[in-house]
Design goal:
Blueprint: H1 17-28, H2 32-39, H3 43-57, E1 62-65, E2 68-71, H4 76-101, E3 106-111, H5 113-119, H6 121-130, E4 135-140, H7 143-151, E5 157-161, E6 170-183, E7 200-202, H8 208-220, E8 226-229, H9 233-241, E9 247-250, H10 251-254, E10 270-279, H11 286-296
Length: 298
């Protein structure tokens, strides 16, 4: 009678969080000396720890690039594992400190400009008033960059435009839907058919809003010939006023302030969804969870 045997499990490499933290530090610093300073050790201690990590993993992690040692392309999986472990360990440390002290030290929040300046401003003011002991660190930037920082655990929460595809290890909660309207330069003939609209000034390639806008413009039957780009809606507004081209912007940003823009059409050309993004596999800090609930109620 034939018998089956369960293969013996592979022995796990005896890695330390400190070794993995060294690897993450090297990946983010300009020099090994900067990486050593970031983790509070000498360059020689850093080098020894990484040599031991390489030995225990059993694959080549570093290669020479001139006189520099850089992370080998074949070791990207090791770096991804290190980033995940270090991020979760930091989360656990922050959570345990919050439980012990009944407070939390810092919440790192990333937002696109429309959320920070318009949609979520009141919620942020209330949170700062009610949790004055929490260090709320706010980063304002484009959606793609904020999600990348969230994925590598440089941020705790992000409010951004919904990405066109799911992001690994990130959960998204819809917050609100905002309309996007088309705006023409001063003196433009607004009776022109969409086929004659443009040229366009808009967000850069890779922007989530740019993806939505390009799709909407094409759906309207207009050519999408882009002559200028900027991540900042205020800059795009000025480009339109200077006559450089048409644009599509969120209504809250285009039609606010002392000189609101006049839409080419009242009906929105498109809509975009703003979401609250959090890492899925983490221990959530109590203050971060409280802020997430406040933002979700916006």
């Amino acid at each position: 009678m034939a018998t089956s045997h369960t293969p013996a499990p592979l022995p796990l490499p005896n890695l330390t969080v400190q070794q993995l933290e060294y690897l993450v530090a090297v990946s983010r610093a300009d020099t090994w000396a900067d990486a050593a300073a970031a983790v509070g050790v000498s360059p020689s201690a850093l080098s020894q720890g990484l040599a031991e990590l390489e030995r225990r993993v059993g694959v080549r992690i570093f290669e020479r690039e001139g006189r520099r040692r850089v992370i080998a392309a074949s070791a990207r999986q090791v770096l991804a594992h290190a980033e995940a472990v270090v991020a979760r360990t930091h989360d656990l440390a922050r959570w345990s400190a919050a439980v012990r002290t009944g407070s939390s030290g810092q919440v790192r929040l990333g937002m696109i400009d429309a959320a920070a300046l318009h949609h979520c401003a009141d919620a942020l003011r209330r949170f700062r008033r009610d949790r004055a002991q929490v260090d709320l660190h706010l980063t304002v930037g484009p959606s793609a960059g904020l999600l990348a920082d969230l994925s590598r655990a440089a941020l705790d929460l992000v409010v951004c435009v919904a990405p066109p595809a799911p992001v690994d290890n990130v959960t998204l909660t819809d917050l609100l839907v905002e309309p996007l309207r088309a705006y023409a330069p001063p003196g433009a003939d607004l009776t022109r058919p969409p086929a004659t609209w443009g040229p366009w000034v808009t967000f850069p390639q890779g922007s989530h809003s740019r993806h939505l806008i390009a799709t909407a413009v094409a759906r309207a039957g207009a050519p999408f010939h882009v002559v200028a780009e900027s991540h900042q809606p205020e800059v795009l507004r000025e480009m339109v006023r200077l006559g450089l081209g048409w644009t599509v912007l969120p209504v809250v940003q285009a039609e606010s302030g002392d000189e609101p823009m006049v839409p080419a059409r009242v009906r929105p050309l498109a809509e975009r969804t703003l979401v609250l993004a959090r890492r899925a596999d983490t221990v959530h800090d109590p203050a971060a969870a409280e802020l997430a609930a406040a933002l979700a109620a916006t």
